[in-house]
Amino acid sequence: MKRALTLIALATLMTSTADARSWVDTKTGERTSTSVTKDDTLVMRTDNAFTQVRVANADIADVVVLSDRSFQVLGKAGGKTNVMLYDRDNQLVDIVDVTVGFDVASLKKTLFETFPNEAVEVRPLAGGIYLSGDVSSVSVAERAVSIAEAYAPARVTSGLAIRDSHQVMLEVRFVEASRDSIKRLGVNLLSERGGVIDSVGNIMGANPGDFGIGGSTSLVNSTASLILGGGIGTASLDVRIDALEEKGIIRTLAEPNLVSMSGETASFLAGGEFPIPVSSGLGEVTIEYRKFGVGLAFTPTVLDNGVINLKVAPEVSQLDVQNTVEIGGVTVPGLRVRRANTTVELRNGQSFAIAGLLQNESANTREQVPWLGKLPIIGSLFSSTRYQSAETELVIIVTPHLARPVSDRSQLSDPLANVSLPSEASAFLGGKIEGGFGHAME
């Protein structure tokens, strides 16, 4: 005997009396496949009566029996499951393969309305949503994925390609300054009030008297941030740093240049690693290594208007032999760490300074004449005590640049390309150690 299984696609939760949109007839014994959108329903009818309906995976779909000849399927989560029908004799009558998907058509419409100039394609993939196509920037791709996740949480796979991929070069300068020397000289490297340096090197929102000698004693304002913009203003800052470095007031710890793709993370470490014994159980000891030195990790994202969103995490650490721990007979030193983590938005060539990372060191030294220095009352006449305290401030200056590769290699210059070594006669007779620029070696 033939029996028909009928499917009625419904857009919302409805009873079996709803109007049918489409009909799919199957013969008895044939396996039926159908699909339903998540949070949507599908009413199924059969010619023959059944007494029991079972769902293989109730987390994906749920079934509500409407009568002895119809039932309703509700899509709960993306995926595939089976609905099995049984008769009075508990015999399997039919199996319906149900695929629960997401509202791809509605997502396509939303993405088109949000990004009319972008070519974003949407298609279902393995119980989720796959995005493909070309977009203009990383921010557009991130927003498209965010919109898709509203339709399919945790089930979005992005294959979006960036048409104009951006590379960002980051110039970073780690400067450590002695605050004692700065206080003695009354040097103020930057404005006390801070501000933005414009293209002619003037600080907006700062008093002229706060600059140079006799102003504040802080390298950077107490808010620990300052944006420096414009070529002349930034160059003026570099000149001040170089001048103070020649006087021994400050020193440059590291000056790395890093390049990263927009949206990717780049890291840098100038230092080393020291071993730490770690007990792994059963009396076994393994060695792990801890990094120290000058480190930096940054993630740039180029926005639509050319602004660079920059996540920066600089760190300066050094071994602390006065704070040690003994593990298994091995002395492990501690670490002194100065770390910052911030997110800023800058334009190409602007600089951002992070300061206020202070470190205090104190020492107490006692010198005395043997035996005599320990005598009561008069022992102080034969001994001396010296207290020393040093305070240093770490300043980190960050400058991002949009980097574009060049096809002509001749445009890339080597700073030593035009330098030649002196001839033997010039070296021994004239005492020259450099041959100058643009001269060939003799």
Automatic annotation (TrEMBL):
Per the database record, which ranges form the Pilus formation protein N-terminal domain?
Answer: 33-100
GO cellular component annotations, sorted alphabetically? type II protein secretion system complex
Signal peptide as annotated in the record: 1-20
Q: Which keywords does this chain's UniProt record carry?
A: Signal
Is Signal there in the keyword field? yes
Q: Which InterPro entries match?
A: Bact_Secretion_Sys_Channel (IPR050810), GspD/PilQ (IPR001775), T2SS-T3SS_pil_N (IPR032789), T2SS/T3SS_dom (IPR004846)
Say yes or no: keyword Heme present: no
Identify the residues that the record assigns to the Type II/III secretion system secretin-like domain, covering every copy: 243-403
Q: What biological-process GO terms show up in the record?
A: protein secretion
Q: According to its UniProt record, which protein family does this protein belong to?
A: Belongs to the bacterial secretin family.
The name this protein carries in UniProt is General secretion pathway protein
Give the organism, scientific name.
Answer: Litorimonas cladophorae
Q: What is the lineage of its organism?
A: Bacteria, Pseudomonadati, Pseudomonadota, Alphaproteobacteria, Maricaulales
